[in-house]
């Protein structure tokens, strides 16, 4: 196969940041993707419907002329989130999900939830109105090994929340373990899971062996090879509950190549090419569109995009920029570490 045409994909987990960074990274996504679920972890976070409406306006204002893109907004769940505000934001069509960050779990998550009893009312309202909860699924307990935090989160937090809130629709964001795949696979259709591009490609050796590679460091951190293989099997299975959320997360290089480097891989630029490579390797090209363009939209109750994109495979490896310039410093584009022969041609 040397060419494949898909419905235009959606990225169901994306960080666009704000200001100069937003302006620089937005075209990288909008070039290939029609829509994206926009993460609310700005400083300060997107907490209210009003914040989300203002952020949406800033995103649309940053979109280059001639590009089409629909930001799907989310709210950042805090212990002070007002259920009525959430309900109004959902009813108006503005907000498509609420994001749960356990306090301190990742970049800009300090306002996240510590006491889950305090958000019970919001979660019950969300279950009633069918608004999905997107979950960063890692415990923040420093006694738990960082490679175990996802599995422990499922047992200690996720499963209890779901049992206590029947009908709550949940997306396990960026799952990184076989435990995550197994848990998601065993649930009903009120549960889905996103998988990133980079977690299909790297395991923890890529970060730590042969010198530390800060551009492969993200949260949840990449795990052992067996987990990467479980993610590949899930992503390429065609199962509707697994869909793409790149978690493309730009940080200026100066903050990645640092004594205390930021977590995040920036994959917006080459994600579709990398996914074509992965799906071809797995003999699953016929399921690429399901993963990138159909299942996510279906879970969020959105129509599939009518527009199409075409990917082409060439003998000579495709070239992608190593970095993009932003008004906030350069950002390194994710390097898979192998030649990629696919690229989006139109
Ligand atoms: Zn994220």
Structure, briefly:
It contains 11 helices and 13 strands. It is an alpha/beta fold.
What does this structure look like?
This protein is α/β, with parallel strands linked by helices and 346 residues long. It has helices spanning 19-30, 49-62, 83-91, 120-129, 149-164, 178-185, 204-208, 225-235, 253-256, 271-281, 288-299, and strands at residues 3-7, 10-14, 35-38, 70-76, 95-100, 133-135, 170-172, 191-195, 242-244, 308-313, 323-326, 329-332, 342-344. It has 11 helices and 13 strands. It has an 8-stranded parallel sheet with strand order 2-3-4-5-6-7-8-9. A 3-stranded antiparallel sheet has the order 1-10-13, with helices on one face. The chain is globular. α3 packs parallel to α4. The model has no long low-confidence stretch (mean pLDDT 96). The chain has a single domain, classed as Metal-dependent hydrolases (TIM Barrel). The longest helix is centred in the middle third of the chain and has 16 residues, at 149-164. 32% of the residues lie in helices and 17% in strands. β11 and β12 (329-332) form a beta hairpin. The protein binds zinc ion. Zinc ion (ZN) is lined by residues 13, 15, 39, 247, 249. Keywords: Hydrolase, Metal-binding, Pyrimidine biosynthesis, Zinc. One of its GO terms (molecular function) is dihydroorotase activity.
